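To make this tangible, we now present a fold written out as tokens:
***
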Amino acid sequence: MTDPKPPRALTHLYQAFADAEASGALVGLLFDFAVDQPVARYVAPDDVLAHVERALQPAVVERFVRDHLRPWFDRERTRAHARGDVVRDWLTPEAIAELRSLAARPVKLNRAFLEGLVKQDAVRHMLRGIVEETLDRFVTMLKPGGSGGGIVGAMGRGAFGLAGSLGKGVLGGISGQIESQLRGAIGGFLDGSMSFLLDRLVALASSPDTAARLGRMNLTGLEEALKMKTGKVADAVHQAPLDDLLGTLPEVLAHNIARPEIRDGLVDEVRAWLDVEGARTVRQLLDEAGATQAWRARIVAVGAPLLGEASATDAFREWFAAHAK
């Protein structure tokens, strides 16, 4: 027993789908209809979170990092060395001029932040060590055996004209007494002066002069960065604990998308975007970028063959037969 012949209308439809020109015209018609709809018809703010959560599942992000992001770093590193370009090559003269202007601005450090920073034990310890070592080196210079014979030794040779073992012994004794007294004074000085030193450090660091100096330092740093080869930048990224950092990405994204304040902010931003763009059609957005015809041509080129192939499937025939009665 053979299957009954399909209705003539269905046969004509199959033939139309199989014809590239006819199926292309249909796909183009559907494209035009779809892009003439308002954007708000396609975007539902309350559904955005569900889509984002599915896209940022740890397993999905982990596979993306493994199969795409991490290999991209390696490929780009190879390309950067092959190009031999520098950071400057990636920027226009106008962009470089703007960056220079921004970098050269005085950097005003926040005084409250600095005060909180210098109160840290590590900062106090570091500053005390620097001052103590500096004063200790100064005391060492006074000794006859110090650099250049020591200040006391130079005084003995020049101003006093003392020589021989007697003179050396006298000066050695004096310098020893001075050194002992000075070294004892250093500890007391530091114990009583650390707060003053830290306050002065904050005052100097937050002064207009320091702000101007930091701006000049930033500008110098920018000029050096512009001359860096991108291959060296890629090497620096490669030498960083890149795999460890990327390995934390799935959990970090999942953690943040689960935070209520982040979720609320995301939905608020979608609503704010729709307030501006929601009434416009998709065609208007594509026209703004000059992309409507390119998208239409591409969708027709891909969609027409797909339509012809889909119409030849048993599932499509069954569906059409069920709805054509």
